[in-house]
Design a protein that fits this description.
There is one protein chain. By secondary structure, the chain is mainly beta. A hairpin with a 4-residue loop joins β4 and β5.
């Protein structure tokens, strides 16, 4: 009798623990992103997709209105090059079905980011042509500030990638 009571108690305990794991998340309506990783820490400079890496970050959005539809081609992921302060790349999050998104969505974004050119000081050799090798400046450091926007226009927090070494030769 004690064994069956223990089994019922254990079953009840596991059921309650499992039920608590199913609580819906409570995310804010404004997206929140967190940097996870880069697939590597250096790139060869170039203009024709000679080299690339993968940027990985997570996101949450409380009202689940994130991602673009076939009818809307607006990009919602933005990369700002910290060397220049300008928007360098934009991407779109694929449509996330609204079924079950009432309590929010979360996910991980992986983006293939292609290389860019080194930026040389104005007084260096080849300052007008940044993608040409410069024997005096073998490396440049690149870092991106990233943010996303949901369909209501809520802008997420901003995150920074780890520094990326650009090999200029």
């Amino acid at each position: 009798m004690n064994a069956s009571v223990s089994k019922i108690g254990l079953l009840l305990l596991l059921s309650l623990a499992g039920w608590q794991c199913l609580d819906s998340p409570n995310f804010p309506d404004t997206p929140v992103i967190k940097f996870i990783s880069l697939s590597k820490d250096s790139l060869n400079q170039g203009v024709f997709q000679e080299d690339s890496l993968i940027v990985k970050f997570s996101f949450t959005d409380g009202d689940g209105d994130i991602g673009r539809t076939d009818k809307d081609s607006t990009n919602d992921i933005f990369f700002i090059d910290l060397r220049t302060g300008t928007q360098d790349n934009t991407f779109g999050i694929p449509e996330i079905p609204q079924e079950g998104a009432g309590n929010g969505v979360e996910g991980v974004v992986k983006i293939v980011l292609f290389t860019t050119c080194c930026i040389y000081p104005k007084d260096s050799i080849n300052p007008a042509d940044p993608c040409r090798p410069n024997p005096n400046i073998p490396f440049d450091t690149l870092q991106y500030r990233i943010y996303i926007k949901d369909n209501a226009g809520h802008k997420s927090n901003e995150i920074l990638t780890a520094p990326i070494i650009l090999r200029c030769n």
